[in-house]
Structure formats: C-alpha cells, structure tokens
Amino acid sequence: MDLKSNHSSPVFTDPVHLSKSRLGLPSNIAPYSTAAQPYSSSGLYLPIPRRKVGKLDDVRASGWLDAMKSSSPPRKKLSKDYISESQSDETDAAYLTWMISYPSALNSFHLITTYAKCKSVVLFLDYDGTLSPIVDNPDVAFMSTAMRAAVKKAAKCFPTAIISGRSHDKVYEFVRLSELYYAGSHGMDIVGPVRESESVGDHPDCIRTTDEQGKEVHLFQPASEFVPMINEVYKSLLDITKNIIGVKVENNKFCVSIHYRNVDEKMWEEVGKNVFGLLKDFSHLRVTYGRKVLEVRPVIDWNKGKAVEFLLESLGLSHHDDVLPIYIGDDRTDEDAFKVLRERNHGFGILVSTVPKETNAFYSLRDPSEVQEFLKSLVRWKSSASSQTEDYTATV
Ligand SMILES: O=P(O)(O)OC[C@H]1O[C@H](O[C@H]2O[C@H](CO)[C@@H](O)[C@H](O)[C@H]2O)[C@H](O)[C@@H](O)[C@@H]1O
C-alpha cells in the first residue's frame, strides 16, 4: 500500500497542550496509564505521552531470560509427539480445567450470539498465530486461501480490522484485502476510514491521505519520530547478532523484532544480552515479549488496546451500547486489547492458545483453524439473522 505522507508526528506530546484541543477520542485516559478509563463523549485529544524513562522496565532490570522463556511455551503438537502419554493426559487435563474459566468460543457460540443480538459486531483480528499458523520463518507465514475467504466474508458483515505487530505494509501483503482496516507495528501504524462526521482526523498525529486504491484514509502514526532511531537500532542488532545461529532481526518500521525461534535454547541468554546491552544506550526504547521474539519499540503509551479504541472512535462506534467489539489474538501483546475491552465492559477478547495461559480474554479458541470456523459461524449467524428480519419485514 503506497501511502503518501508528508507529516512529521509530534510524539513527545504535551498532555496539557493536547487537552486544549478537540478530537473525538477518549480524553480521560490518564498519562502513563495502561488501563483504559470510562469513556467520556466530550472528546479531547488523546495524549500519547512517553512512558517514564530513566526507570528500567520491570523485566528489563532482571528476569528477562525467564520472560523470554515464559512468553514462548512449547507448541502442543511438538510436546504430544515427544512426551509420554501420561504427561500428555496431564496437559490435556490442565487445558480442560483452564477452559472452565475461558470456554471455547465455538462451544459458547449460542451464548455469544444471544448476547450479540441487536448489536453491531466489530471484529479485531491479530495476524500471526491467529489468522496464520506459527511457522519457523516469519517471511513465509502465509494465511490460507480458505482463511482469506473467511475473513473477506466476515468483513462484508462486520467492520473488520487487522491489528498486528508487523509493519502495516507487510501485514497488508499477507492479507491482501482492501476492505479491511489495518493497524501495523502494534497499533503505531494505523490506516483507518475517513468519516466526515468524526473529528479523528483533527488529531495532530493523524493525516488524511489516499491508499493504493485511491480511497481516502486516515493515517495515524504516533511514533513517526522514532523511525530513524528504529533504523539505527535495526542495523546495530543485525550486526551484533550476526554470529548467533538462527537469529532473525525484522524491521517492522516503528519497532524491531528479534526472533529466537530458530536459536538453540542455550544461546537465548546471548540473544537477550545483546538486545538489552544495546538498549542501555536507547532510553526511549523498550522491549516487549512475544512468541519466541523480543520486540523493541518506542517508549510511548500506545499499544494494541489504544489502537482498538482509536479505530472504534474512527468508525464512530466508541460510545454505543449496541456495539460489540470482538478481539481475537494469541500473543502477549494482544492482552492490551483484551484488557481494554474487559475494563470498558465493552466487548470481549478471545485468546487463541493450545496451552493454558493467564489472560484478560473471556473465551478461547485452540488454533487458526478454530478461528476460521468461528468467523464462518459468525457470518452464517449474521446472514440468517438478516434474512429473518427481511422475512419479518415482508410479512408486516
Ligand atoms: O501481532 P502479530 O500479528 O501476532 O505479530 C507478532 C509477531 O508475529 C511474527 O512473529 C511470530 O510469527 C512468526 C511466523 O509464524 C514466528 O516465526 C515467530 O516466532 C512469532 O513470534 C512477526 O514475524 C513479528 O514481526 C510480529 O511482531
């Protein structure tokens, strides 16, 4: 997608200054807070403050190796192949127990649609591990044709957005559906719809431009000032990790991913030492943890949860009780979005996982094939609900 941009984004925003301006975004999200506050329709600029610097991230100061391990649980399929039957039964029992708290969204489908009745569903979908299976080489994490068809049909029924850690362009290349909204780089690269009635476009970090198809869109890049720094760190990371077999460094425009999936576990510490060692010189960058990946990103209070709020607002769906946002994701970074929905008591998250995990989601699905089934079920439900309404209208 070739987006023409000539705007430089003031990331180091002053919340006091911002609070004087207007935007239809939640105004009362406290600076430095990751928790969403109740919505106020008054609508002021959403401050995007830097998180406090000078203080190391909790896991950055110690325990990053544990965090690298715990964010990367072994794949169930592998463990089933290699562990004894009794261990496997134990794993299944633990999963079943976990599912009491996080029931399958497929088994709970009737309950979900009963709740969704008369509400407008909005879909937020993570990409890797949700729409495409996790594979060793991130460059070939393609989604299946069947999944693309399911997402396309879902997008015909419900506003649908992809929220990914990958750069906007890369995730768009994989998904290739122009009817969706995209938030790349963990929400730091959003292409959203233009709605004349909304004031989202007045935000200083938001520009109006055209996409590849010539469609008018809002481009929101709250971390654009970090691009030179991210490029510098990307180059340094390539250099300092070049002798660690299996490391892959990926430039995601507003963040950098350092993959250790193909690195011998004995060398994970070496990977961490290099990354955290380098970041000592970059106090405006921090690290988050994904599935066998460390992600270096700017120290701004922006994440997938904020991206969900931004998109809901762009769509004019933020303050409606009859809107039901559903977010499906598999990663730690998706927890920010699950948390926002849970705390606002507005919609719910569905965690994709084959292993029990602590989560802010309400429901679970095992893998992308179940995600596909869930999307297809939603489309069937929507179509039958619409035809029932049509029948009723024809009768009266
Ligand atoms: O937010 P997402 O769309 O889930 O993106 C998160 C990261 O996904 C990718 O890495 C993950 O998937 C790879 C392909 O299956 C896998 O090899 C890797 O181990 C996973 O961490 C992507 O490459 C990253 O840039 C994203 O940040």
From TrEMBL:
Keywords, in A-Z order: Hydrolase
SUPFAM superfamilies (alphabetical): HAD-like (SSF56784)
Pathway: Glycan biosynthesis; trehalose biosynthesis
EC number: 3.1.3.12
Cross-referenced InterPro entries: HAD-like_sf, HAD-SF_hydro_IIB, HAD_sf, OTSB-like, Trehalose_PPase
Gene3D superfamilies: HAD superfamily/HAD-like
Catalytic activity: alpha,alpha-trehalose 6-phosphate + H2O = alpha,alpha-trehalose + phosphate
GO BP term, pick one: trehalose biosynthetic process
Essential cofactor(s): a divalent metal cation
Molecular-function GO term, any one: trehalose-phosphatase activity
Similarity comment: Belongs to the trehalose phosphatase family.
UniProt-listed PANTHER family: TREHALOSE 6-PHOSPHATE PHOSPHATASE, TREHALOSE-PHOSPHATE PHOSPHATASE F-RELATED
Function per UniProt: Removes the phosphate from trehalose 6-phosphate to produce free trehalose.
NCBIfam families the UniProt entry points to: HAD-SF-IIB (TIGR01484), T6PP (TIGR00685)
Protein name per its UniProtKB record: Trehalose 6-phosphate phosphatase
